[in-house]
Amino acid sequence: xxxxxxxxxxxxxxxxxxxxxxxxxxxxxxxxxxxxxxxxxxxxxxxxxxxxxxxxxxxxxxxxxxxxxxxxxxxxxxxxxxxxxxxxxxxxxxxxxxxxxxxxxxxxxxxxxxxxxxxxxxxxxxxxxxxxxxxxxxxxxxxxxxxxxxxxxxxxxxxxxxxxxxxxxxxxxxxxxxxxxxxxxxxxxxxxxxxxxxxxxxxxxxxxxxxxxxxxxxxxxxxxxxxxxxxxxxxxxxxxxxxxxxxxxxxxxxxxxxxxxxxxxxxxxxxxxxxxxxxxxxxxxxxxxxxxxxxxxxxxxxxxxxxxxxxxxxxxxxxxxxxxxxxxxxxxxxxxxxxxxxxxxxxxxxxxxxxxxxxxxxxxxxxxxxxxxxxxxxxxxxxxxxxxxxxxxxxxxxxxxxxxxxxxxxxxxxxxxxxxxxxxxxxxxxxxxxxxxxxxxxxxxxxxxxxxxxxxxxxxxxxxxxxxxx
Length: 470
Fold this sequence. Notes:
By secondary structure, the protein is an all-alpha fold. Helix content is 78%, strand content 2%.
């Protein structure tokens, strides 16, 4: 059965729906594969690139942090530039966004492999320059795939319930990649509890092949259905866009929430490597931690749709964040736990913030709709890139703060055994800091983000009415 089509050119401001098969499981599976492919390298970089640079390239943690900060800030700008570029392109036979995923995935994966190439015997300056250049290239190319991928959700279906399922499937894809990376990664990348250059390169190649396979599956299975009238697309102007963005309060608050969450999430990922490698003396326990984190998400998945239907996205995400904050705070006051006990308690926090991760992309489609409601412009790429900009800034801050924080607590890669002060500092970074940050996010989402369940339903109704009058 095909979608009911509104032909392009039917009227300015209208959305045209392609006469294609109805939205269904095939689309959800295809969208899952997209983030599955994205996160093979994203999670590898988030979890292990810092330790690769400190322990194999022998770059100081502080220098790595500054490098991450600079590169991620540029990535954030690249997101907006690429999103704007995408919105100025016309849709083709395969849609507006999907062709760019296909084209740019190959150079993206190649740049990811190059980050993990170690040339023995070079100077410290060479390693620093090589790390910075390859990381910068990878981050820029990541924008060229991730921006069209993220934007595509809003044109696959206009049904708000199905958009929530797309958000869930996207998170499932990320979790599957996390399962592969976090479970097999420590076993593959470390030899005798030490980072191994050859193993890192092998891992990058294997994960790169898997990433390309996932991108191709996404392009094959997912289908774009909704497109902006071609004549309207030409009339979009930057001044009107930014005027609309400034009025989009849901977007502004979700940007702040996402930036803050990314700082927290990336910091946790970076610090956990040192926590288990040095504090607990068991880097391979990270494999079990990755398995537990994935399990908590899959336990939460069947609960998301009924909970959101009853209470709303905002309400469910807020409750999960509060639970996670309280659990991290309790871990701070339990420094004597074994690695296994620590992971057991931590799993409850992971379960809590899993709900936020499972619905966050549905928040994004809501703010894209709100932008159309305020401006009359359908600018999926631009609005999504602004959202991605906030996430990249969060990643930049986390990368910079992570490296600086690890150095500040006294971590020294040259020492086989870290000082007591350094170990205590690492434990604090892994527990108390997330507790505070997650509490702040809870307060923002609860009291400042305006699209609760009732207002989201009203937005869908108002937007449908406005489109019918165009």
